[in-house]
Amino acid sequence: MLVQLALYGVLIPALVAGVIVVVAGRAWRTEGSAPAIVGPGLAAGFVAGYWGLLGAPAAIPIDVTGWLPHLAVLAAVACAVENGISSRAVHWAGRLVVSLVTAWLLLRPLAGSSWTTGQAMVTTAGFGLVLLATWYFIARAATGEHRLVGVGLAILLAASTAAAVAASGSLLVGQLTGAMAAGLGALFVAMLVFAAIPTADKAAGVVAIVTGGAAILGFAYSQLPVVSLLLLAIVIPAYMAVCTVIGDRLASRLATAIRLGVAAVIAAAAIGLAAMPPAADGGSGDDYDYAYGDDS
Fold it and tell me: Is residue 106 part of a domain?
């Protein structure tokens, strides 16, 4: 089991994402096309991890977990389009559509069974907006003064989400999210070695949709506490808030260490709370599984 997880959940996603990003990034470094490959590279690594852990993705999944690779590819397409179109209105429209589609596909089994139509619409819109905000904050953090800090924060978010979801009872979704963290780790190494490799903001949508989608699954179908969900959502915003508070009053390395320390503490708290016995508000995993049922 551990060997299989290490191979399909870590090594293969990292190799696929790393090879695509490095080969394409270096091949196109003089043409300005390299940024468009980062999102598809990470999505390809995630899909490879999913394939290794669960088999080939179904064209039309019968359970919500099966939508994660499709959504990763959809987010990768949106990221690639952003790199080819300069209109910010198009960027935000694409992000909003992908975020809302993700929330709807992942929460659809609950509509009509435990929620009214109005509750389903409000909840889907709410989670969609959270995904949209996560997309924005990942992209914003990745374009900061330290190009490696942004991908480091994305790794922290993906790894802590994987750990929290697994600790709350959904080991499978946690393993899949770990595949995204592995792909980001490969991107980090590639950026460390090759200066031409684009930053993580070029793949912010893929990271946001996969990690945010995993958190939604953990909350809605497992025992991920709402407090853990909220803490995961503010990991990167908290880092940026500390940036604003500290400003230029401390040395650059010390300030970065403090910011990352705050983000890590929040992520650790989310994991710790997820590992505790489930509270009454910890999602609806006792009543629902991941399947759509026979009527879909």
Answer: yes
Task: Give the distance, in angstroms, between the CA of residue 148 and the centroid of all CA atoms in the same chain.
Answer: 17
Q: Distance between CA 7 and CA 13 in Å, rounded?
A: 9
Contact status, residue 92 vs residue 131, Cβ threshold 8 Å: no
Query: In sequence order, what are the residues at sequence separation of 6 or more whose Cβ sits closer than 8 angstroms to the Cβ of residue 293?
Result: 109
Query: What is d(CA 117, CA 130) in angstroms, rounded to the nearest whole number?
Result: 20
CB distance 83 to 43 below 8 Å: no
81-103 mean pLDDT: 91
In Å, how far from its chain's centre is CA 191?
19
Q: Provide the residue range defining the domain that includes 26.
A: 2-156+168-221
* Residue 76 falls inside a structural domain: yes
Specify the pLDDT at position 193: 83
pLDDT at 129: 97
Q: Cβ distance 215 to 165 under 8 Å?
A: yes
Alpha carbon 215 to its chain centroid, in Å, reads: 9
pLDDT in tens, 20-71: 888 876 655 544 455 678 889 999 999 999 999 999 999 999 899 999 999 9
Predicted local distance difference test score (pLDDT) of residue 143:
79
Give me the number of domains the chain comprises: 1
294 in a structural domain: no
Q: CA 131, CA 10: separation in Å to the nearest integer?
A: 24
Instruction: Tell me which residue of 111, 124, 144, 163 sits closest to 269, measured CA to CA.
Output: 163
CA dist., res. 112 & res. 82, Å (int): 35
Residues with Cβ within 8 Å of residue 225, at least 6 apart in sequence: 168, 273, 274, 276, 278, 279, 281, 282, 283
Determine the longest span between alpha carbons in the chain, in angstroms.
Answer: 60
Q: How far apart are CA 270 and CA 215, in angstroms?
A: 11
Q: Is 222 exposed, middle or buried (0-12, 13-18, 19+ CB in 10 A)?
A: buried
